[in-house]
Each structure stands twice: as structure tokens, then as C-alpha cells.
Amino acid sequence: MTGITARGIVRRFPLEDGGERVAVGGVDLEVAPGEFVAILGPSGCGKTTLLRILSGLDGADDGTVHLESPGGRPPVISHMFQEPRLLPWLRVRENLGFVLDDAARRDAARQDAWLERVGLHGVAREYPTRLSAGMQQRVAVARALIVEPDVLFMDEPFSALDELTAMGMRRQLLDLWRESRCTVVMVTHNPMEAVLLADRVVIMTSSPGRVRTEVRLAADFPRPRDPDDPRLWRTSRDAVKSLRL
Description:
The chain is an alpha/beta fold. Helices cover 33% and strands 25% of the residues. The chain is built from eight helices and nine strands. A six-stranded mixed β-sheet has the order 5-6-7-3-8-9, sandwiched between helices. A three-stranded antiparallel β-sheet has the order 2-1-4. Helix 4 (108-117) crosses helix 5 and helix 5 runs parallel beside helix 6. The two termini are 35 Å apart.
């Protein structure tokens, strides 16, 4: 498993008048190997920018990010986004194979097995455009996990889905995560989603984004968690209140 250590992360963006906007204003963050961390904060606070820096999709202007895997090997990193980002000219099975090496890409049984695991039996030869939004996002889950990642970065992966579909996707994600125990960092606007899924919720300030506080959940809320648990609901409400401070 892989841990993440970030120190003093700063990201600035230039403005047309010659000034600059500080999106992330000095973030220190540690994520333990196998931990599920949710990053919560108001719109525009730099959550996605921070996630992109942690995952290596973007660089920081100041600060360092270190991903440490056993034996010092390069970690396997996977991503999920708000949109499934499937390649529309490839069939569903081919979309899964696209992220694999040549040998694994020829293993159709492996790809079909992952489609089965996300409840998509029989769609391997379909094109993504013939699937519903929820089905496309399930393909995205399978594609993210088929590579057996050490770290999974997720940017509001269920925000575009209706709540009923999103609830099912969250349960499915947790089931698959419990098998892999990969390290997960997820950005969300949804406080209830954060406390339902994460071991720890990192709450950020308004722009420039900094860490305001953290909510640790693993000890008080062992899994499986009940979304109707009033204690969990109160914890999500407390998280909302902290966003307004």
C-alpha cells in the first residue's frame, strides 16, 4: 500500500491584469497507506487543484508531494472524474483494456469479470453512448480498479448522478475498496457522502484553500455505515457548519 505526504502545497494562477490568484494557500496533508480520505470544502476553494497536484496531473508552485510504496517501487495510480471519460469509439470491454498493458489487454475474461463485479454483465460489446449515465460511471469504476491501483484519486465521481444511483455506486465502491484496500483520496461537495465513505474528512477553507480542520470517523463509525444513522447525519451537519466559519 502507498502513503502520501504533502508539505506546503501552493498553487497560483495568473490573472489578466498581471496579478495572480492563489488557489491553494499552503496545504500540509498526510494520507496513511490504505486510508480513505475525503476532501470537503466550499466551491472554488481549490479542492480539485489540490487533488490534481497530489495525483501528479498538475504541479505545485511551492511545496512537495511524496508517494511512498513498499520497496520504493513507483506506485500504480488511477483516477475517476465527474464524467466517466470513456472513449466513445471503443466498446465497453475495449475501454477497460485501454488502461492495461498489451498482455492484460488480450485477457478478455479479466475485463468481463470486472464488468460482472460492477453489475454490467452482457454490455462488454456495447458502445458507451448506449449506456445510461450510471452504467457509464460503473464502467469508469471498473476501469479505475482493474489496474489494481495503489492509490485511487476521485474528483466528485458521483455528483452528476441522481441520488438513488449515487447511493448504489457508493456501496459498490466501498465493497470493491474493501477488497483492494488501496489508498483513496476523494474530492466531494457532499458532506453526507464524505462521512459515509471516508475514514477521515479534510475540510478546507474558502480560497485560498487551506486545511481548516479534520473529522476522524474510523473509530466512531465502523463499517458498514448506515446512512440513516442519526449520529452520522449530525456529523455531516457539523461538517457543514465548519464550512461556514
